[in-house]
Design goal:
Layout (H helix, E strand, L loop, with lengths): L1 H19 L1 H14 L1 E5 L7 H11 L3 E5 L5 H11 L4 E5 L4 H10 L3 E3 L5 H9 L4 E2 L1 E2 L2 H9 L4 E4 L2 H4 L1 H9 L6 E4 L8 H5 L7 E3 L5 H5 L3 H15 L1
The structure holds 2-keto 3 deoxy 6 phospho gluconate.
2-keto 3 deoxy 6 phospho gluconate binds next to strand 9.
Pfam families: Aldolase (PF01081)
Keywords: Carbohydrate metabolism, Lyase, Schiff base
GO molecular function, one term: 2-dehydro-3-deoxy-phosphogluconate aldolase activity
C-alpha cells in the first residue's frame, strides 16, 4: 500500500513537471508540425554530422533525430547543435537515463525512443527536456498518459499495422498525438499526415545508413528535397 502511494505521488509530481515542460514542448511540437518529417539518422563518424545536417537543411528539413545507436552519436549531436543552432535536433534510440543525460549535454531539443522506458521518461521530465517515448499498444499509451505525456512516437508504424492500426489504437485516446516512425517513406507518409492526430512522421529513407557511410551528401540533399515536395 505504501509502495502504491509512493508511486502515485511520484507520478503526480511527474505530471506537474510535464505541465511545466509544456512551453518548451509547445515550441518543439510547433516546429515538428511545420517540418512534418523527422529524418532519423545513424552516424558512425562524427565528421559526417555537420555535412549531413547541411544536406538535410539545404534539402528543406532543418530537423533530425540522431540515434544513440553508435559511439559517435553524442559527439555528432553536439556538433550539429553547435554548428547548426537553427536546426531542431533530437536524440533517438535513447534507452537509458545516462543516454538521455548525454543527449541533453550535447544540446538535444527533444528525446525519442523506440519504446516506453519509465526511467528515461522520468529523467527527461525531471530535467525539462521534451520526450516522446515509443508506444505500440494501449498499455504503452496508458503508461505514458500516467506520466502526463500526450505526444508519443508510434513505433514500428508500418510493421505494427500502419494507418489502420493507428486509427484503431488512437480511437480511445483522443487527447494523444502521435509521431509514427518505422517503415515510413515517400509512398506512405501522406496517409499518416492526413490523420489529425499525427504531428509528424519519422523516417530514414532520405538519409539511409549506406548513403551516410558513403558521404553521399548530394544524394541525401536531393532525396530530402523530394521528401519535402511529397508533404508540401
Ligand atoms: O530508435 C528510435 O528512437 C526509433 O524510434 C526507431 C527509428 O525511428 C526507426 O528505426 C526508423 O525507422 P525507419 O525509417 O524504418 O528506418
Amino acid at each position: 500500500m505504501n509502495h502504491l502511494r509512493t508511486t502515485n505521488t511520484s507520478n503526480e509530481t511527474l505530471r506537474t513537471m510535464a505541465t511545466t515542460l509544456a512551453s518548451t514542448d509547445a515550441t518543439v511540437l510547433a516546429r515538428l508540425r511545420q517540418t512534418k518529417i523527422v529524418p532519423v539518422i545513424v552516424i558512425n563518424d562524427a565528421e559526417d554530422a555537420v555535412p549531413l545536417a547541411a544536406a538535410l537543411t539545404e534539402g528543406g528539413l532543418a530537423c533530425a533525430e540522431v540515434t544513440f545507436r553508435t559511439k559517435a552519436a553524442g559527439e555528432a549531436l553536439r556538433r550539429i547543435c553547435a554548428e547548426n543552432p537553427d536546426m531542431l535536433a533530437g536524440a533517438g534510440t535513447v534507452l537509458t537515463p545516462q543516454q538521455a543525460a548525454d543527449a541533453k549535454a550535447a544540446g538535444a531539443h527533444f528525446i525519442v525512443a523506440p519504446g516506453f522506458s519509465p526511467a528515461v521518461v522520468d529523467y527527461c521530465l525531471e530535467h525539462d527536456i521534451p520526450v516522446y517515448p515509443g508506444v505500440c499498444t494501449p498499455t504503452d499509451v496508458e503508461a505514458a498518459l500516467a506520466k502526463g505525456l500526450k505526444t508519443l512516437k508510434f513505433f514500428p508504424a508500418e510493421p505494427a499495422g500502419g494507418v489502420n492500426y493507428l486509427k484503431a489504437i488512437s480511437a480511445p485516446y483522443n487527447m494523444v498525438e502521435f509521431m509514427p516512425t518505422g517503415g515510413i517513406n515517400a509512398s506512405n507518409i501522406g496517409a499518416y499526415l492526413a490523420m489529425k492526430n499525427v504531428v509528424a512522421c519519422g523516417g530514414s529513407w532520405m538519409a539511409p545508413n549506406d548513403w551516410i557511410a558513403a558521404k553521399a551528401f548530394d544524394r541525401i540533399r536531393e532525396a530530402t528535397r523530394q521528401a519535402v515536395e511529397v508533404v508540401r
